[in-house]
Amino acid sequence: MNIDVPVPDDLRELMAAPKCLDLRLPKPQKLSVQLPSGGTLTALHDIGKAVPTDCSLTFSLLLQIMPLMASMECVLKILKLLKPLSDAVTSLPPTPKLIKEIVDAVADLAPCFLSITPAGMIPFVRDILCLILALLRCLVGQLKTIADVMGGLTLQLKAAQDAGNDDLVKTLQCAQENSLESMQHMMNGFGPVSVILELMAPMMSIAGVGAIKLPAVGDASSAEALSKTMADLQNVVDTIQGVVDKLGGCPK
Are residues 111 and 124 in the same domain? Predict the structure, then answer.
């Protein structure tokens, strides 16, 4: 027997299924920054993450702007010097005002000349090497952790096979495959570090530091190659630490 129970309108509205309008994601704005040169920086949509929002797009722009602004300082000072030099050449003889502008611009540009001397390059090289050192230690530590997990899985897998526990064998094999995949992804993380070290070679030369290269990364499926890779990486970590110590040590 069915009995209809009257429900107040406000409760009925509260229990009703939400409308699409209530669940619809807000559309992010198109964010961009116009550069002094006339170009434009546009916020990037990271398709590997969640649906972008105004906050994430703004943060994307800030990540692009920070290195750009840092690299523009000396360029702007050079342009500031070139302007009065151009005026002086095109309006000979140069006026006292133009001469003063040139002198002031040269004085303002003087700190940029330090970038091609050891005194100016050493702090930059040291700080970048400190970042690389922290990253390498993180990656090596995670490699060791995954290697330990794989070692434990190998022992458990052998015990399960000896016991004839097929279900456990399949589970452990799946866990082992996942660990191998994680190991390979971790090794891929060394690629950008190697590129940065190659790009830094000229700067390290100015700072009086020899070039540093990462060893070739071995096959994650080979325990012997993995052990050798971790040993080689540890040697690189020790080398970078020695270089950083000579340059004054990492900031604490």
Answer: no
